[in-house]
Amino acid sequence: MNDQTMSAPLLHPSAPSPASDGGTLKMTARNVNVFYGAKQAIRDVSIDVTQENVTAFIGPSGCGKSTFLRTLNRMNDTVSSARVEGRITLDGEDIYAPDMDVVQLRARVGMVFQKPNPFPKSIYENVAYGPRIHGLASARADMDQIVEKSLRRAGLWDEVKDRLNDSGTALSGGQQQRLCIARAIAVDPEVILMDEPCSALDPIATAKIEELIHELRGRYAIVIVTHNMQQAARVSQRTAFFHLGTLVEYGDTSEIFTNPRETRTKDYITGRYG
Amino acid sequence: MSILAILFLVLGLGFVAWFAARAKAAGFQPENGIRPHSRPGHHGWYVALWAIVPALIFLAVWANIAPGLTMAAAIESPAGAGLPSPGMERSAILSEVRGLADGRIQGGFYPKAQEMLPAYKAARMRYGIAGASLALILALAGGTYAFTRLRPDFRARTRVERVVMIGLLVASLIAILTTLGIVASLLVETMRFFSKVSPVEFLFGTSWSPQTAMRADQVGSSGAFGAIPLFWGTIFIGAIIAMVVAIPLGLMSAIYLTQYAAPAVRKWLKPILEVLAGVPTVVYGYFAALTVAPAVRSFAVMAGIPGASSESALAAGLVMGIMIIPFVSSMADDSIAAVPQAMRDGSLAMGATTSETIRKVLVPAALPGVVGGVLLAVSRAIGETMIVVMAAGLAANLTANPFASVTTVTTQIVQLLTGDQEFDSPKTLAAFALGLVLFIVTLLLNIVALRVVKKYREAYE
């Protein structure tokens, strides 16, 4: 196991700039608006994502938190009616610039979805999918190493090492989600976006994913959307509260949960609505 | 009285019964606070069904046995005494009696028929009246019986529901029984064929020349029924050439339509593609015979390929492939659309391009559905008749040269049955054996295809 094999033809090191509130700035969004056709889903959102912290997006259903998450790796491009305004940068680079290669961007900003979505292939092939596409391993042995390392990081290796050729869809829900995380980290991204990764899982599987998020923290900048406030409190250091497409409040998780500045945040956290 | 009049009478009785029962049921009051079990309409239907159904069943049976009874009575009568013994003449006389009585023929050939006519007419009248009265009595009795059973707590709704279920069951049984009937008739004729030609020769023989001698001294028509060249021709055209055309084109158009086409484009292109499936196959036949076949032949001649014929496997197969495209495309379209969006998103989020996503995720995930579609398309192609009749030719060649003329099972069935040989000659009977083979093969293909598709559907639900 060495980090060399997962190294970084895709890594774009650039001068880290300090964020205003501690931590190294990884991604920034400034005055972002998102429209679906004529309907505005996101209004004037500005936010910083730091390398060291897990950032949680919380808010009631339909508040735009998932939509905003999907602007960070341009997954909204797949929706033909979606339109994004404003500036979003990754290491200072505008990801909506005309010369930005979406394929490269998504290799750097990985994503884990709400419902586990392993491909109907073997466990091995699921993890090897990204590295193969991006040509990260030429020899079989290199690929084996990437697969093992990714599965280990996702905390799944011991459970599946004897059945790597079984179908990924045959695993339990929690295992499938960890497989999807392994698949995402196999291309060694810089940022991992998680869109309610535990909403389809039982409490034990959820606990495992949360534990995993703790372990991955620092190695990857992590942004997690969750409708579960306890989860946000448990896994994140920074929390952003969205409501009706606007960013109501963004700050340290401990602050948001104990001493919110806005009444709307307070009402949501104390369970008045949402 | 004609059957039709009785039918209307019975239906009229049912109509009256419906109103009467409904009116009676409408008067039911709640007993001890419990509402009547069924609504008045259910009671109405219950009584009406009792009035109509038994009478109709009786009429259906009666319509079949009454003519026989009538004729028997006429023969028993004194006028029928001098009839010739059973044989051609007797049948002719009896059928003339019937014709005269129905007014279908004027004046007859046999004096005996004229003699029997009054007795026959009298018997017919008797049985007609008997049948009509019985039907009406049944209708009245049924209606009355049902009517007396009506009570507020009578479960008319449940009964009516059961009758509806039985009605639907009968409707579906008719389709199934018809299929069984077709299979049975195929089987019987095939057995007759196999009593003249051995199954081994038929299934494994390589020489097909179905002309049999009509006279013993005729030459060159000994008759050979080895169907291998036909099977080969069918597979060559329907399962090989047509599929080489249809699978890639159908799959690619499905991929374009589901993954690349803008909704507006898809809205126009998909129906246009489906129009292909609505073109009558005989029109494809012209196209194959008049446009494609000559073009294929001139190409073969130009390229110096030996054995070029104006009727070629290639021409028929190409056009058949075009015809099949909508089948493959629409099945592939469905299966690709059934792959969850999450799968596609998962791949795109890994940084895969659209075409990588299609090749590595969508098509493999949709493959079982696509395979099912292809099998259905093959079964349709090998059963297809008009194109091959018009473009593939009649020569039973066992050749892999696509420019040569080959023949197919369906083409030969048409040839065998449109000949002028008597119906029990091996030549004609061979058509049934070929039909049975075709039926079995397409049935198996359909079963396998549907299983594959079903299994695949379960995977995502």
* The number of domains of chain A: 1
Strand content of chain B: under 5%
Strand order of the largest sheet of chain A: 6-7-8-3-9-10
The helix fraction of chain B, in percent, is over 70%
Distance between the termini of chain A: 45 Å
What is the mean predicted local confidence, pLDDT of chain B?
Answer: 86
Query: What's the structural domain tally of chain B?
Result: 2
Largest sheet of chain B: 2 strands, antiparallel
Q: Spell the H/E element sequence of chain B.
A: HHHHHHEEHHHHHHHHH
List the secondary-structure elements of chain A in sequence, H or E.
EEEHEEHEHHHHEHEHEEHH
Count of alpha/pi helices of chain A: 10
Largest sheet of chain A: 6 strands, mixed
- Using DSSP, what is the number of strands of chain B? 2
Short account of what is shown:
Chain A: This is Phosphate import ATP-binding protein PstB. With 274 residues, chain A is an alpha/beta fold.
Folded structure, characterized:
The complex is a heterodimer of chains A (274) and B (461). In chain A, α4 (140-153) packs across α6 and α6 (173-185) packs parallel to α7 (203-216). In chain A, β1 (25-36) and β2 (39-50) form a beta hairpin. Chain A has one domain (25-269): 3-Layer(aba) Sandwich (Rossmann fold). The longest helix of chain A is centred in the middle third of the chain and has 14 residues, at 140-153. Chain A is built from ten helices and ten strands. Chain A has helices spanning 65-71, 102-108, 123-134, 140-153, 157-160, 173-185, 203-216, 229-235, 253-258, 263-269; strands spanning 25-36, 39-50, 54-58, 82-90, 93-94, 109-112, 191-195, 221-225, 238-243, 246-252. In chain A, the strands form two sheets. In chain A, strands 6-7-8-3-9-10 form a six-stranded mixed β-sheet, sandwiched between helices. In chain A, strands 2-1-4-5 form a four-stranded antiparallel β-sheet, with helices on one face. Chain A is α/β, with parallel strands linked by helices. Chain B is flat, with a radius of gyration of 32 Å. With 461 residues, chain B is mostly helical. Chain B starts with a helix and ends with a helix. In chain B, α12 (354-383) runs antiparallel to α15. The mean pLDDT of chain B is 86. Chain B has helices spanning 3-26, 40-76, 88-102, 111-149, 156-196, 199-204, 228-260, 263-278, 281-302, 313-338, 341-349, 354-383, 386-391, 409-417, 426-459; strands at 208-209, 224-225. Chain B has 15 helices and two strands. Chain B folds into two domains: 3-28 and 35-154, no CATH class; 208-459, Orthogonal Bundle (MetI-like fold), CATH 1.10.3720.10. Chain B has a two-stranded antiparallel ribbon with strand order 1-2. Chain A binds chain B through residues 73, 75, 78, 80, 102-107, 110-111, 113, 115, 117-121, 129-130, 133-134, 169, 180, 183-184, 187, and chain B through 262-263, 340, 342-353, 356, 360-361, 364-365, 459.
